[in-house]
Predict the structure.
Amino acid sequence: MESNDQKKYPRVLVISAASLNSHSATGITLVNLYKGWPLDKIAQVYCEETPPDHKICTNYMQFSNKDVPFVNIVRRIVKGSEFRRSSVPNVKAANANNIQGIQNKPTFLPGNAAAWADTIPIRLSPQFWQWVTEYDPEVIYSVLGSIRILDIVLTVSKKLSVPVVPHFMDDWPSTTYQNSLGQFFPRILLTSKLRSVLKRSPYRMAISELMAKEYNQRFGPRFSAFMNCIDTTIVDQSLSNNTDTLVLWYVGNVNNCRSNLLKDIAESALNLYKEGIRIKIKVFAGVVSRQIHDELVIPPVMSVEADFTDEHLKSVRKFADGFIHVDDFSAINMQYFRLSLSAKLPLYLSAGLPIFAYGPDSSGSIKYISNHDCGITVTERNLVLIKDSLRRLACSPELRQRLGGNCRQVAIKLHDASIERKRFKDVLSNSAEVHVQ
């Protein structure tokens, strides 16, 4: 029997909507967990527009609506757009030197129609079966999330007798197809397929300890937590920001909701600025709309910066005193994310700087920050509370040092890539050894 240190890398087939790239929170988590996986031992079936990062995976196939009979007809009726497969001739996987253009366009159906469209059975092509059979996976890894993905996972698992390791990143089993009575049947089908997948899962993963604990009770045992991980040696811990201004960085996508929450913080910072307490917020949001960009430029307290890079992370302690995390207060998002953990938190924690967290106390990320004493949390939309909390953080270097130290300890203990990738590999390796019919 091999020890855990000697466990081999199994041939894993990743099936998910998100591809193995850093264009989404899910993609970032997948890339960080699979970094260093042998390229001949990983393949992916994905749905989104952007292909996998070739440093992580060069053997992949894009799932298309052409695999679902009648969907294109339905979508055209409601003025949707057609999807096109991204695969190369002769059923060979795409690679860095041979990629056909992907011309996906987002497609949307009215709520009930979209839910019912998801129930249409898939039809995996002979081309797909030749590709996946030649690869011969030993284990399937999937973040699931929809009837369509569940269907693909089940079909491949049953035909090839391959075990499945599901990884739950949000509480979609409790929230999907819940908007109306018209989604009753899709809801029943989703639940049935999920149960079937779990029967083929010797081990299961959750995105947080909170989720793992609840899912062990809800779905049965064998859930363990696997969060986003990071190289904890990247940040230069010797640096420090010695200015008299409290500088807070926000890193991540910004939609209308997050823009409004960041503006709440900026408004409070502006009021403190008038009292002589200087706070500067820098938003690293990548590509944003002109409207959101203009809304977030609030001199002299908030600016929008260029893309966040590894160089920013390495030297962050020289230029910043902390980070900002915001979570949506809407009812649907509070339910969807209550067990989740933001993919960017490990990055924040690794810097050893405190976090200013603004969001509902039901949020899994807000709870994580609070429970580990890694920052100051404001859990209601109250500008007075935001202002008072910012004042505390700005006026107490000792508080910032204590909270930042806690962040660093949590990063090393729970998010260190060298440890988490080995644990991750071992679970997939152990799963691959389990025979399923």
Summary: The first strand starts at residue 12 and ends at 15.
